[in-house]
Amino acid sequence: MPILFACSAAASAASLLDLFPARGRASVAVHRFGAAAKVAEVALTVALERQVAAVPRVAAPLRTGVTGGLWRAAQGLLAASLVTSLIPGWHKRLRIFGALLGTAGAVALRFALLDGGRRSARDPVATFEQQRAGRGAREVPELESPRRHPESERSGAAASGEGGFELTDRGQHA
């Protein structure tokens, strides 16, 4: 998601700059920069939806209710903004219309992700389902010993008898 946020910020900045009068070579650079950012933004929204759709319970906040409507509106507005930026020629009204579409799409995207995150936080079981499906928590290392806590060994607390603890086979503190 951080890459999506970065691309969305770049596309938003380009859309806002497109609202100002043309500035010669600077306008060409903004246009190209914005078009590339919009392509990445649209592709990343599709990738994000595909990733969360692997577990239906995780995808529910982006598909239902107000959040789902905002998400679909954001995708449509961003795609329309991308199409207007790819049309050849420098039509002032089309450029402004595309910039307004991009700005509205960026706002809808941010609110959809914010509200979707809030709705997801209310359902912690969905997170566990996602992890059990093999999506997430892969980077958690296995403990070398099921009886010792690695932090207590590194800090020296186990050797001095202060603050260290052992785990029993049931995972309870001894």
Word description of this protein:
- The chain has 174 residues and is an all-alpha fold.
- It has helices at residues 2-18, 25-52, 56-63, 65-86, 92-121, 124-132, 150-155, 157-160.
- The radius of gyration is 24 Å and the shape is elongated.
- It has 2 domains: 2-132; 142-174, no CATH class.
- The protein has 8 helices and no strands.
Biggest sheet layout:
none
- Please report the distance between the alpha carbons of the first and last residues: 41 Å
Can you give the mean pLDDT? Answer: 77
Order of helices and strands: HHHHHHHH
Number of strands: 0
Number of separate domains: 2
| Share of residues in strands | under 5%
Residue windows where pLDDT falls under 50 for at least 5 positions: none
Gross morphology = elongated
Taking all Cα atoms into account, the compactness measure Rg is 24 Å
**What structural class should be given to the helix and strand makeup?**
mainly alpha
Classify the helix fraction into a percent range: over 70%
Number of helices: 8
